[in-house]
Amino acid sequence: MLSTLIIWMLAWMALGVCFVAHAQPQAPSAPEQYIAEWSDEAVYQMAVYGIPASITLAQGILESGSGQSELAAKSNNHFGIKCHSDWEGERVYHDDDRRGECFRSYDNASESFHDHSEFLKRSRYETLFELKPTDYVRWAKGLKKCGYATNPKYAYLLIELIERYDLDQYDEQGLALQADREAFAAAEAAEAIARNEVLETVQNKELNPAKSASTIGRRSVQTSENYIRYILAEPGDSYDALAVELDLMGWQLYRYNDIDRKNGKYTPGVGEVIYLQPKRNRGRTLWLEMRPEETIWEASQRSGVSVKSLVRKNRLTPESPRPANGKLSLQWRLTEEGKLPNWVRTIRGPNS
User: How many angstroms separate the CA atoms of 201 and 329, rounded?
Assistant: First the structure.
C-alpha cells in the first residue's frame, strides 16, 4: 500500500514539473525578433514605394539571417546589395558568388531598407509594380523571374517565411499608412488653397461691392487659424436665439460646436467661441498643449478640431480623458505608445 502511494506521489510531482515547464513562456525566435524590430520600417517603405511589407521583411530575414549575418551586423546591409557601378558610398568585401565581392555598407540599417526600395524601383523590376501590393506570391515569383537572386528556390523560401510568420498582415498596415500619406498631401493642398482664398478675399474686399463677409447683421464674424468662421458670445446669447438671428437651422450651432442638444438649451459664456461652420478633422499644427484643468471640449473649441477627431487621434477613453503628457495630437492618430506614426517622425524629424 505504501509503495503504491509513493508511486502516485511521484507521478503527480512529475506531472507538476511538466505543467511548470509548459507554463514558462518561450523566448521569441530570431526571425520573430527581427520582425518586431523592423516591421515599422517595412510598412513605411511600402507606403512610400509600394513594395509589399511582407516581401521586404521576408527578404530581410532571408538575406541577413534575421539580422545576424556578418554583412548585416558589421555593415548594416540587410539585403545583400552589391556595390554596382553607380554606388558611391562605403564598401566592404565578402565572399559570395565569387571571392572578395564588393557590398554596400551603411551607417544604419534604415538606410539599407531605403536603398533596397530604391534598388527595386529600377527598370529591371518595373513589372512587379503592375501586381497588386497584397499579392505576395506573385511578387516573390516575380523577383526570382527578374533575376533578383540565383537560388532556384528563392521565391518559395520567401513565400514560406511570409506564411509561417503571417507577414501579410503588414501589407494591410502599409496600405493604411499609404492612405494616411495621401490624405496628408490632400489636406496640405487644401490648406494652401484655403490660405490663398482668404488672402485673396482680404486683398480684394474693397473691390467687392457685395455685403462684407466679416459681419452678419450686427455680429462681427472672424476666421480661426483653422479657417473656420466664428463669433464671440455676448451677454444674454443662447444657441437657440442665435440660430434665429443668424438664419441657421436650430441644430447647426449645437452640432458645429459639439454640444449635446438633448441636455437642453445651451447658454454660452460671454466671450466664448461659437463656430458657424463644422470644425475640422485635423489641425494646422502637430500638437496642442492643453491648459491646466482644460477639458477636451475646451481644447476642441480652441483648436477648431472636433472632439470626435481628438478622441480618436489621441486614443482617449472615459478612464483616460486627457493625454498623460498634456499634449494633443491634432493631425495624426498616435501609436499605442503615444507617439506619432513612424513615417511622420521620419519626415518631420525625431523631435516631432
Answer: 30
User: Per residue in 129-152, pLDDT tens?
Assistant: 999 999 999 999 999 999 998 899
Query: CA-CA distance, 183 to 185, in Å (whole number)?
Result: 5
The DSSP annotation for 168-206 comes to THHHHHHHHHHHHHHHHHHHHHHHHHHHHHHHHHHHHGG
pTM of the model: 0.52
pLDDT at residue 328 is higher than 50: yes
Residue with cell 511548470: 20
C-alpha cell at 126: 518595373
**Nearest alpha carbon to residue 217 among 236, 200, 254, 242:** 242
Please write the tens of the pLDDT for every residue from 258-297.
Answer: 998 877 888 999 999 999 988 888 888 889 999 999 999 9
256's enclosing H/E stretch is helix 252-256
Non-local (6+) Cβ contacts of 102 within 8 A are 82, 83, 87, 91, 92, 93
> What percent of the chain clears pLDDT 90, i.e. is strictly above it?
39
The grid coordinates of residue 4 equal: 503504491
Q: How far apart are CA 191 and CA 226, in angstroms?
A: 9
Strands in 229-232's sheet, in edge-to-edge order, are 222-223, 229-232, 273-275
Report yes or no: 44 and 117 within 8 Å, Cβ to Cβ: no
Domain annotation for the chain: domains and CATH numbers: 30-176 (1.10.530.10), 211-278 (3.10.350), 281-352 (3.10.350)
Residue 328 CA to its chain's centroid (Å): 16
